[in-house]
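Supplementary Methods S3. Complex input for the magnesium ion-bound model.
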Amino acid sequence: MKIAISGKGGVGKTTIMALVAEQLKRDGNEVLIIDADPSPHMAQTIGVKDPGAIVPIAEMKTLLQERSGKTEGSPFYNINPQVDDLLSRYMIEDNGLKLMVLGAIESGNQGCACAESTVLKRMLTKLLLAPSQYALLDMEAGVEHLGRGTIAGVDHLLTVVIPSKSSIRTALKVKRLAEEVGIKSIHFVGNKVADKEDEDFLTEGLGLKPIAFFPDSLEISRAERKGRPVTEHLDEVADRVRQLLTALQ
Ligand SMILES: Nc1ncnc2c1ncn2[C@@H]1O[C@H](COP(=O)(O)OP(=O)(O)OP(=O)(O)O)[C@@H](O)[C@H]1O
Ligand SMILES: [Mg+2]
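Predicted complex, serialized as structure tokens:
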């Protein structure tokens, strides 16, 4: 199953994806996380011992250009690049989770990361997964990647939303664009929710009940501040993570 996550900046996309990954791993599944945020933060969030040692694929500029067939100054690029070996070559494994970091894609004067997003798109469609294999895609904030159709091939899109009007506005925009690119299964996930009033505010504003609500947790925010993996706190929210995963079945 391929699951991507989206939403406004700082709503908790990386946190929730890390918790989902840990739960899936504990349930005996094989989990590959693709960190597609240009400011990657997943390695720290899941407690990779030496995040600095990870080579982001984007730093392989020549390789990317080669694979996408894009040449300097040319608007054309190969829409069917060879990506078979990228996964095995640039994936690290730590704590039983596999992680691949895309990194900051330099758009240079092209003003568009088209070639690189073609490589990601291709990688996503290439991945053939057994039922016990999960590919989780952590995305940058906002809707730009949806505009490019990079994640059109995922089975589910989770849109994280916190109890604020601006977060709801972004979530609704994400939903609209995701529908436009043909993603069939789009779900809202409430985060940093304090009480029933917050839950109702979200359900009303979105016009649809989120599949799970995650509490605003001091443990979670402190873990991040202390540089501790959030996965250490899965037990506190495991029921919410299970609820989320059940809704995707
Ligand atoms: N349920 C929660 N309770 C308390 N703090 C949380 C919760 N979820 C996330 N946070 C905190 O909110 C901050 C942002 O979380 P996170 O990095 O997961 O968001 P993001 O959406 O991935 O951000 P970005 O858009 O920058 O990628 C972090 O400090 C994190 O610890
Ligand atoms: Mg993030």
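Residues 13-14, 37, 41, 138 surround magnesium ion (ligand 2) (CB under 6 Å). The beta strands are 2-7, 30-35, 91-94, 97-101, 133-138, 156-161, 185-193, 212-215.
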